[in-house]
Amino acid sequence: MLTPRKIEIFKAIVDEFIASAEPVGSKTLLEKYHLHYSSATIRSEMSELEDLGYLEKTHTSSGRVPSKMGYRYYVEHLLEEQRNENMQVALRQVFTERKYNTQEVLKMSCEILSEMTQLTTVVLGPHSEQQTLLQIQLIPLSDKSAMAVFETSEGHSESRMFHFKERVSTHDLQTCTKLLNDRLVGSSLSDLIEKLMLMKPILADKIEHYEMLFEAFFNAFIRFASENIYLSGQNNLMNQPEFADVNKLKQVMKLLENSSLWRTLGSSQGSLSLNKEEGSEFVWLEDMAVVSSTLPLDNDSSSKLMVIGPTRMKYDHIVGMLKTLTKAIEEIYRKDDTNEE
């Protein structure tokens, strides 16, 4: 248990480092935060906070910076959530203009959040195992092209353009669509490829140019049934001083491309995590911090909205924005459920 004096000094260090990105010394604390202690007392307390694991000393300065353990303590005990009125106004304008499907809401939420935080955001849609295929539509556009529209049980809708090397008749398109709907509707998205492979002899027997249609749907299912992950604002990390080093930035970008990481983030080696009662989740990994919130989509705990940035991020603002956004999404779905009734 930290004493009130240690807590006061520690909070001032965290607040100052978040604002300046520079190691914090006793002189800065005295001049800027007007602490009622002597310089010697502050240095002594900072040394003890370092011994306890809440602060770290950098190689380039005599000042201290918060450790991952320190950030966790700060978030768990000292965080003062900040509400963002600008985001509330923006969300009302965007989401009340028209009805959006799940995928559109997720992408727009991700983009709004990355713009307002100037950090990178990730949205995890429903797991492919938790979604089933609801319907396939195949719309002819010309003799050699068609548009396929896929809908799932989670409200996800996606279209794919098919371009064929040879002419495909409307009859073949209609036959293919009926066969696929008859045998694939209700299947988990993760099972679509395997079931399509089993259908190949049936398609060959019923459709003249089945190879082209089979290849088109095979490629579409691979992408459609893959991890439903969307990123926005990747380049925002380039503006953070922590990632000014090119090699460090490359490592971060490589992590962003690892889609499987985001599903198992809290259990990643070397990470430190915290789940708060109100639903916010925090993970500190290497030089990055991730703040996330579960999205209220049919009680699906795999759908999450994440903000990724340096450990020195404005946690109070981020948490407030995430709460505002998840509340807005919850209201959209509550309104939709009421309209359906």
Structure overview:
The protein has 341 residues and is an alpha+beta fold. It has three domains: 4-78, Arc Repressor Mutant, subunit A (Orthogonal Bundle), CATH 1.10.10.10; 85-127 and 228-340, 2-Layer Sandwich (Beta-Lactamase); 131-224, Heat-inducible transcription repressor hrca homolog, domain 3 (Enolase-like, domain 1, 2-Layer Sandwich), CATH 3.30.390.60. 48% of the residues lie in helices and 19% in strands. The protein contains twelve helices and eleven strands. The strands form three sheets. It has a six-stranded antiparallel β-sheet with strand order 7-3-11-10-9-8. A three-stranded antiparallel β-sheet has the order 4-5-6. Strands 1-2 form a two-stranded antiparallel ribbon. Helix 1 packs across helix 3 and helix 2 (26-33) packs across helix 3. The longest helix is centred in the last third of the chain and has 26 residues, at 315-340. The protein is elongated, with a radius of gyration of 26 Å.
